[in-house]
Amino acid sequence: MKVIGVDGGGTRSRGVLMAGSQLVAEADGGAAIILPDAPETAAAAVEALARELAEQGGVDLPVDALWAGLAGAGRTGPRTEVVARLEAAGLARAVQVGTDVEAAHADAFGGAPGMLLVLGTGSVLHAQDPTGSTVRVGGWGVDLGDEGSGYRIGLDGLRAVVRGWDGRERVTDLTSVVLEALKLDDPSDLLDWSGSAAKADMAAVSPLVIRAAQDGDEVASRVVSQALSDIRTMLEAARRRTRGWTGRPGLALVGGLTRPERLGGLVKVLAEEVGYSVVDRPVVPERGAAALAGRLVAEESA
């Protein structure tokens, strides 16, 4: 049985080709978030990644199944179009698209109860409790949510830069750091930059904000503190809304912001304070997607 598992977000995608339990190939690809007005972009990214995996592994397509966990897959219409395009591409005999969160949860917990906190370009907490109920906190996108995410930290950092430029608050060391990183002359150039910046571009500013906070910048520290407060609120809400735990719920952390050099250590402390047991092993969403592809094959042959 040969399957492909893909994890795709707003910044990049990553895939694995498995033959049973053996890893045959792995590769990175471009952003594979499903945009409501351009789902074909995500489909093209997944197709390119799947073909690269097949070429690396010396495997002919179609494989038995492909399962892609993609950010933005919660919207039924665009997700259906991505599935149709992938089926038409002849990549696999069975194709399914779900969310990147489902893929990560599958790797972290299999089918067992647990909670998954994703802090990357966007943010969401996905919980499956012992009663079988599924709860989502966050995941509302840039207009309605994304609190505690890379996008929001980057945006709030830039807002602090322009407020300081206006004289509305203390000037932050972020100003020079951001201008140098974005190759801009002064904060007034941020108006044009932000107007054309993708979500991933804004999220890429977040490490600059976090580093400035770690170096003691007061304004950057306030931005990071707000993000951590928002993350705590998500954790508390999920704890209240789930039932049936006999001990501390397991919590897996996923996404670039959960790296130790970013917010990983602070988020772990928050989670333990709220009453979670943090899963120590790394979560590999594309591996979870491959496991779901394997289940898809089993369902098809049942």
Architecture overview:
With 302 residues, this protein is of the alpha/beta class. The protein has 2 domains: 2-98, ATPase, nucleotide binding domain (Nucleotidyltransferase, domain 5), CATH 3.30.420.40; 112-281, ATPase, nucleotide binding domain (Nucleotidyltransferase, domain 5). Helices cover 48% and strands 20% of the residues. It is built from 12 helices and 10 strands. The strands form 2 sheets. A 5-stranded mixed β-sheet has the order 3-2-1-4-5. The protein has a 5-stranded mixed β-sheet with strand order 8-7-6-9-10, sandwiched between helices. Strand 6 (114-119) and strand 7 (123-128) form a beta hairpin. Helix 3 crosses helix 12 and helix 9 (206-214) packs across helix 10 (218-241). It is globular, with a radius of gyration of 20 Å. The model has no long low-confidence stretch (mean pLDDT 93).
Q: How large a portion of the residues is in β-strands, by DSSP E?
A: 15-25%
Distance between the termini: 15 Å
Mean pLDDT: 93
- Number of distinct beta strands: 10
CATH architecture of the largest domain: 2-Layer Sandwich
Question: Could you give the order of strands across the largest sheet?
Answer: 3-2-1-4-5
CATH top-level class of the largest domain: Alpha Beta
User: Which structural class do the helices and strands define?
Assistant: alpha/beta
C-alpha-based Rg, rounded: 20 Å
Shape: globular
CATH-derived topology of the largest domain: Nucleotidyltransferase, domain 5
- Overall number of structural domains: 2
What's the structural blueprint in terms of helices and strands?
Elements: E1 2-8, E2 13-19, E3 22-29, H1 39-57, E4 63-70, H2 76-88, E5 92-98, H3 100-109, E6 114-119, E7 123-128, E8 134-138, H4 141-144, H5 150-166, H6 174-182, H7 190-196, H8 199-203, H9 206-214, H10 218-241, E9 250-254, H11 264-274, E10 277-278, H12 285-301
Parallel strand pairs: 1-4, 4-5, 6-9, 9-10
Antiparallel strand pairs: 1-2, 2-3, 6-7, 7-8
